[in-house]
């Protein structure tokens, strides 16, 4: 075959593509010192996982003494391994407030002669001021045919929840999303309130997930979720009310008041100074979150929602990465950040990214660890690896090269797509940094059936997989911390929402 100039151009393009895939040219590889992956040991990771996700810390709910106690334990581990304090006032801690808005105990709810109590036998989906006294109509499953038979304007509308989530989705997200969307449609059509009654499929999740509705909603002080407003109520009831909810001529009475107050939460921050006189003023940030759901109503006799995978695995991984850098620092400094109140809406990472304890422009990359120890042993995902979530080609290529050379996970790309209904990219602590145009990626092994249930226990974690995920995250960060150039930022990077 005769080579033409076009063949030469194509060859050079392929060569360039291979360079991007590996993320390293030969010159760059030779400039990067040997890493310290041997310091990341299964025994250490297992010990730390069982400690942070054990019953002793009672699920580490944000804004409670349990979260603060777990945070002190993490800070002590950082001190013992030699990390320098990098929080406020020479400590490992950066405290911040979270604001909670919840329905008051004085709120009243009744249907006919049945008095219901929010948080026990009825749950209001959003804490908003409401005062409704209206006739109740039952519209079956709320199909167009059902609604055509009833005038819903000026009435409280009760309907049976039906529908199942596609297999690849979290049923909780599907259920709440469906309830909210359908309720908004009915309210727009003139309903004064919407009452969902669980069917046999939804009843299991009524028992499992309504505990979160007891808490209300959270935000940083002054954030959008702190605003108190009036809203037509959406109520969720258990399946056993279905017989009497159908009875005609009943009145729906609902008076909802809300209250708001602040709690303390905390980020834990440590650093390992770099060895290069110039590059040590730049930071590779390794992040995770220490909080979970705390102590809630018991499910199958277990009231402690330990969050071993979410996010005890991330905690154990980032501690191991900190240990490896402490034993062998890189040219750039490593910044280790445990974010508080992630489960309340990424509050700790939103606060730290807005109030960093190092100059924001000195953070060259954020590597976040979120749920790293379940599902198939050879599967994983890298969030932020494809447009529109891709904000640094060099950072992603470093991660792909590390996986190719070391861990060889089969990478799931579906969950990072903009059209994936779970919106997984938007649900962990890399997000606030990406919004500030800091190169950011997230290492995860994705959701599983025990997600946000008491079954998310340390015994269910694949320690070997978690160790491999940790090594992958570490090697990516080690490469970035030793490369001469900081990771690029994609021009005109913009998220879809």
UniProtKB/TrEMBL annotation:
Residue ranges of domain Peptidase M28 in the record: 267-473
GO biological process: proteolysis
UniProt keywords, alphabetically: Signal
Leader sequence segment: 1-27
Gene3D superfamilies for this protein: 3.50.30.30, Zn peptidases (3.40.630.10)
Chain coiled-coil ranges: none
Gene Ontology terms for molecular function: metalloexopeptidase activity
InterPro entries recorded: M28_fam (IPR045175), PA_dom_sf (IPR046450), Peptidase_M28 (IPR007484)
UniProt name for this protein: Peptidase M28
């Amino acid at each position: 075959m005769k080579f033409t100039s076009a063949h030469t151009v194509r060859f050079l393009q392929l060569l360039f593509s291979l360079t991007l895939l590996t993320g390293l040219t030969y010159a760059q590889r030779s400039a990067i010192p040997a890493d310290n992956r041997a310091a990341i040991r299964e025994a250490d990771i297992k010990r730390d996982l069982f400690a942070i996700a054990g019953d002793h810390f009672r699920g580490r709910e944000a804004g409670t003494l349990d979260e603060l106690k777990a945070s002190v334990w993490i800070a002590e581990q950082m001190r013992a391994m030699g990390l320098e304090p990098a929080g406020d006032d020479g400590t490992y801690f950066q405290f911040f407030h979270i604001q909670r808005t919840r329905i008051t105990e004085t709120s009243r709810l009744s249907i006919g002669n049945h008095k219901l109590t929010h948080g026990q036998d009825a749950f209001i989906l959003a804490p908003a001021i409401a005062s409704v006294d209206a006739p109740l109509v039952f519209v079956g499953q709320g199909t167009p045919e059902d609604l055509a038979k009833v005038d819903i304007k000026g009435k409280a509308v009760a309907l049976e929840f039906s529908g199942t989530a596609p297999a690849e989705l979290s049923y909780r997200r599907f259920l709440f999303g469906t309830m909210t969307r359908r309720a908004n449609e009915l309210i727009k059509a003139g309903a004064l309130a919407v009452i969902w009654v669980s069917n046999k499929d939804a009843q299991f999740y009524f028992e499992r997930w309504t505990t979160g509705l007891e808490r209300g909603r959270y935000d940083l002080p002054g954030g959008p979720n702190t605003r108190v407003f009036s809203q037509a109520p959406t109520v969720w009831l258990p399946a056993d009310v279905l017989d009497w909810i159908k009875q005609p001529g009943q009145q729906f009475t609902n008076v909802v008041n809300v209250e708001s107050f602040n709690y303390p939460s905390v980020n834990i921050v440590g650093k390992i100074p770099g060895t290069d006189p110039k590059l040590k003023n730049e930071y590779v940030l390794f992040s995770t979150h220490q909080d979970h759901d705390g102590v809630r109503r018991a499910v199958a006799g277990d009231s402690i929602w330990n969050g071993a995978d979410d996010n005890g695995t991330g905690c154990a991984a980032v501690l191991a990465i900190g240990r490896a850098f402490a034993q062998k620092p890189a040219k750039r400094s490593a910044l280790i950040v445990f974010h508080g109140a992630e489960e309340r809406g990424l509050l700790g990472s939103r606060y730290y990214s807005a109030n960093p304890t190092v100059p924001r422009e000195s953070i060259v990359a954020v590597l976040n660890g979120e749920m790293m120890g379940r599902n198939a042993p050879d599967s994983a995902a890298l969030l932020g690896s494809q447009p529109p979530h891709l904000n640094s080609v060099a950072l992603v290529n470093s991660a792909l090269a590390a996986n190719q050379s070391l861990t060889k996970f089969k990478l799931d790309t579906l969950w990072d797509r903009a059209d994936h209904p779970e919106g997984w990219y938007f649900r962990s602590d890399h997000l606030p940094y990406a919004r500030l145009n800091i190169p950011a990626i997230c290492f995860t092994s994705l959701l599983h059936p025990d997600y946000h249930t008491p079954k998310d226990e340390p015994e269910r974690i694949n320690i070997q997989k978690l160790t491999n995920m940790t090594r992958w995250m570490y090697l990516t960060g080690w490469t970035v911390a030793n490369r001469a150039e900081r990771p690029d930022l994609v021009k005109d990077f913009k998220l879809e929402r």
